[in-house]
Amino acid sequence: CRQIAIFAGNSACDGPRRRVSWHFPGLLVTLRIMATHEKTHGNEVSCRPLQSIFQFLRDRQIPAEAVFGGASYAIDYMRNPNNRISWSELVKCLARLSDVSGGQSGLEAVGELSPGSMEFTQLNKLLGFFADSRLGYWGLMKLMPSFFRNVRFQFIDSGSRRIRIIMEIPEEYEDCPAFFMIWVGGLRSTPR
After folding, report:
1. Could you give phi then psi for residue 42, rounded to 5 degrees?
2. CB under 8 Å to 129, separation ≥6 — which residues?
3. Strand ranges inside 41-172, DSSP E
4. The overall pTM is greater than 0.70
């Protein structure tokens, strides 16, 4: 199944549009994801988000070569958070990560490491002094295009402590279900 939706911890296929929802105490997050097909352009992806994958692999004593071996970029290059890789290379690496991590649950576990990153923890602490968690999600959606230049991120405050996060991969890029499964884990573990 190329399309996946997660509803309160359950997953189901729902066709070309994916919708992922989380119900938090007093806060509803809906993530609608529209994925499409193939083509690649260059350096769309920052290596900074890859650091969660390297951490996941280290924690489970899985060699980085199992995911990043055979890539067009050297593993040491991808370990540098200041470097960038192509979207197509990320798609290939995430497919291998899905295989070695055990599929959806493993990919979600990788995502759960992301909100614990230094940058996001610092941002959340700062925002906690000034506003509720909606501002944190808004900030996250404003920050993500610098990491994934080809993915469109949108934040909608629907009122009544409900927000909607929309992520879209433009048609000219390859579909990547693993990318969205990682986001499921990341958003699920994001402070609220």
Report:
1. 155, -105
2. none
3. 45-46, 84-85, 152-159, 162-168
4. yes
